[in-house]
Amino acid sequence: MADMQLFRQYNELADFLIERSSKEDVAETARLLALNLAHYKSKFGELPLDDTLAMLEIDRPNEDQLKMLISGMENLVGVLGMVHGGGLDEDEDVLH
């Protein structure tokens, strides 16, 4: 079962990384994620962007939507971390 708390933790970590990233790091992250999306589209076809954007406004996502939200945040955090340098300072408590 997907966990809303896990989504919130990834979201918090993404915010943390974005705040500490340069504009260039965020731009590089966007480029890499855009390439991933283009690769997916070339293999599987167009994604329904309207449905995806609408999901961001849902207060209580269903299980499948929550899994997708978590997966998306995992992707964002992973790419941001890779672009930003991969490491956090040892003394920084990111996820409370």
Report on the structure:
- With 96 residues, this protein is mainly α.
- It has one domain.
- Helix content is 70%, strand content 0%.
- It is built from 4 helices and no strands.
- It has helices at 4-19, 23-44, 49-55, 63-84.
- The chain is globular, with a radius of gyration of 14 Å.
In summary, what is this structure?
With 96 residues, the chain is an all-alpha fold. The protein contains 4 helices and no strands. The radius of gyration is 14 Å and the shape is globular.
How far is it from the N-terminal to the C-terminal residue, by CA? 22 Å
Number of helices: 4
Structural class: mainly alpha
Count of domain modules: 1
* Average residue pLDDT: 86
Content of β-strand: under 5%
- Gyration radius from CA atoms, angstroms: 14 Å
The amount of helix comes to: 55-70%
Count of individual beta strands = 0
Major pleated sheet: none
